Amino acid sequence: MTCWPPRSDPRLCVLLCCAVLAVCAAASSTGAGVCQSPGVASCTDCLCRGPQCAWCFQKDFLYGSEPSRRCDLPENLRRRGCGSEFIEQSEVKVEINATLSGTQVSPRGISITLRPGSQASFMVAVKQLQRYPLDLYYLVDVSASMQENLNHLKTVGVALSLRMTEHTSDLWLGFGSFVDKPVSPYISVHPSKINNPCSDYEIRCRPAHGFHHVLSMTGNMSEFTRVIKRQRISGNMDTPEGGLDAMLQAAVCQNAVGWRPEAKRLLLLMTDQPSHLALDSRLGGIVVPHDGQCHLENNVYTGSTRMDHPSLGQLSDKLLENNIHSVFAVEKQQYQWYEELVQLLPGSYLGKLGIFQAPNLIDLVVDAYKRLLSEVAVSVSVEDLAVSRFWVSVSPICPQGSTRKDQSCSGVQPGQTVYFNITIGQHACSADGKDNDVVVLVHPVGYNESTVVRVHSKCGCKCRPTGHCNEDVQSPCSSQELRPDHGHLKDLNIDPNRSCRADGWNVDCSSRGVCECGKCVCEQSRLGLIFGKYCEMDDFSCPYNRELLCGGHGVCVSGECVCQEGWTGESCGCPTSPTTCQSPDGFICSGQGKCVCGKCVCDDPQHSGEFCEGCRICHIKREICKNVDCSHSLKGAEHCNITCAQLVGPIEDLSERVSSGRLLGTFLSVCVLTVLCGLVVVAVSQLLMQKRARSPGGASAEGGYHCTGKDVSYIPRTNEKTVTYRRDRPPDHLLEMHIQVPKMPLGDLWQY
Ligand SMILES: *[C@@H]1O[C@H](CO)[C@@H](O)[C@H](O)[C@H]1NC(C)=O
Ligand SMILES: *[C@@H]1O[C@H](CO)[C@@H](O)[C@H](O)[C@H]1NC(C)=O
Ligand SMILES: *[C@@H]1O[C@H](CO)[C@@H](O)[C@H](O)[C@H]1NC(C)=O
Ligand SMILES: *[C@@H]1O[C@H](CO)[C@@H](O)[C@H](O)[C@H]1NC(C)=O
Ligand SMILES: *[C@@H]1O[C@H](CO)[C@@H](O)[C@H](O)[C@H]1NC(C)=O
Ligand SMILES: *[C@@H]1O[C@H](CO)[C@@H](O)[C@H](O)[C@H]1NC(C)=O
């Protein structure tokens, strides 16, 4: 096998080939072909092959053929005689729990049933309210370089709350500070510097700390300003700070921070340095991964020296879970570093922090709030253990005026609703093969409501009530009967009615199979499938109707259709019930005919129409009889009417015949007249021509015509052309004639 691209690593070749094969497999995984595989031995196998496959567990279904034949498209199974109640198939159900309702997200509860290979779609509507309360938590890096920023935070509170009145119903602020993990080498552990890291500069600073929660959410702006004024800076050694560690605490310590459940939540991180990431703290001897829990004691983060920084994924999960939008207000130099970080945190915003500019910080918050709210996205999370067994696709339907970006809508205005079409599909069953429920959470980013989707994955087959899920997997001489320890029971176990010969046949298995242990094993035919207890059935040797064997309403037994109830006819094409013949007035064929194979056959040939409802003559008859004067009748008016009807019949017929005769006559006379007129015209023109031919130079032409011995007046004019077409094989005399024809002064006729 040659490989593309040439000269590449052989492993790459294998990979490429696998990819190609996978694509092929995916492409062919439609239609009936995918269900029919000799390897399918049980119901579970069958349903795993695709959502379109079904398994028939009817006991005698396709008796004599391999068990894999029980797996097919449901319509094929039904056509081969499997009762609908014996068909196990992938059922995809989506049920919406209407008992739960939300103001912003609906529905709140959905339960769906899936099988491997199947998928289900549902819609989640996310409505943005006009106004939300807003909680804003300032998480400020208080390392020495942040002194200026801390100073102008003091003036922010009141101004910001004034600016935000047009966007939110009320604004609450909170405050927390962080530096870094208080261990070496991130801080100096010299005794003189532990308590005052700024001792070198003769400034009084506070000790370094991982995170201090300072002010819980409050609407009292003077309280906020008072607390900010009390803040003092701290110091550490290395450049990056422990911002992400502090963010996680601020997000998960709901009670201490006092996030309001009904509020939109912004967590604003102010820093002028990059942040430490997970695994960074190994240098300080901290190797325990973060557990994602709140570790605040007296508003001091106690886990800082025990646990590593959280990973970005962990932080992102916790922010989502607590409906928190994060805003990064960073110094210009660090902008790029955070730009990449923000892309990994859904619902986050990045703004540049200008030095000595309080208005800038206010604008930043207002912008962030507007931007974050106008962007509506959902995060769909599947339980950890089941994540590999499902796939999810999200496609938003954005309201007018907004634009779609991948899986979210941006530019959504307050009061608008965004719809998300969410499709959940199942790849596989859990390893234990049990049916179990998996919870999928659809959480609009930053919203306090979410949709809980309970996915019930069906992995086994119920095969109620008989349990033939994988019957007849063994050969007809089933292993149980032949096992030595059952030897003496053998005869009891065998169905005494077992035989390979149908009543009235003198060959086994209709001579289309072999008899093994009293059971027919039907032969394979290229024409189709042979099956049945005596191999008497097949799917190819019966009449077709509407391109379906036995019209799709019967099974083919010994070459004849055995129709389902409600159908009859050689190819089961005729419904037995006459409903199709019922005319709108409720009678069968308007009472004027019989229903034959679902169609009306009228008794009286005068009647016509789909339901024999039409009869032009009958109407005329009635009209005539109405006007008949019955007073002269000897036997009474009623009798007169009857006789009238009887009499009118033949008269009508006669008149009809007469009138049609008249029509025919007119037609014939018109024909004759036309022919006569034609002849007259031809004769006249001929006369004219001859007259001119006799005039000077016309003699030779006259001779030419007389040679043919034909009456020239009847030669159709089109002959002039016909001759020209026969140039390939010109009969000499015709050619001559042709030459002479143009010499005839025919054109002169038109020059008069
Ligand atoms: C709807 O949700 C409620 C609360 O979770 C639950 O008690 C109830 O059984 C659910 N109803 C349905 C039909 O799933
Ligand atoms: C707001 O905070 C200030 C200072 O802490 C306090 O004096 C005042 O009583 C508070 N106002 C309200 C309404 O709680
Ligand atoms: C979510 O927020 C809305 C709007 O602020 C509020 O009406 C609702 O009560 C909140 N829901 C919960 C569960 O807190
Ligand atoms: C939702 O998505 C699925 C899969 O892409 C699609 O089949 C279905 O038609 C969509 N439904 C709507 C209402 O757009
Ligand atoms: C054998 O056939 C008879 C009559 O057709 C039937 O009544 C009986 O139930 C059958 N026995 C078994 C074990 O199928
Ligand atoms: C004769 O039949 C016509 C229509 O069938 C009816 O309208 C009319 O009344 C009848 N005449 C008599 C005298 O019964």
Task: Tell me what you see in this structure.
This protein has 752 residues and is of the alpha+beta class. Strand 25 and strand 26 (537-538) form a beta hairpin. Among the domains are: 10-91, ligand-binding face of the semaphorins, domain 2 (2-Layer Sandwich), CATH 3.30.1680; 132-374, Rossmann fold; 616-654, no CATH class. Helix 5 packs antiparallel against helix 7 (221-230), helix 5 packs parallel to helix 12 and helix 8 runs parallel beside helix 10. It has 20 helices and 34 strands. The longest helix has 58 residues, at 637-694. Helix content is 29%, strand content 22%. The strands form ten sheets. A seven-stranded mixed beta sheet has the order 4-6-22-21-16-19-18, with helices on one face. It binds 2-acetamido-2-deoxy-beta-D-glucopyranose (6 copies). One 2-acetamido-2-deoxy-beta-D-glucopyranose binds next to helix 15 and helix 16. It holds the Pfam family EGF_Teneurin.
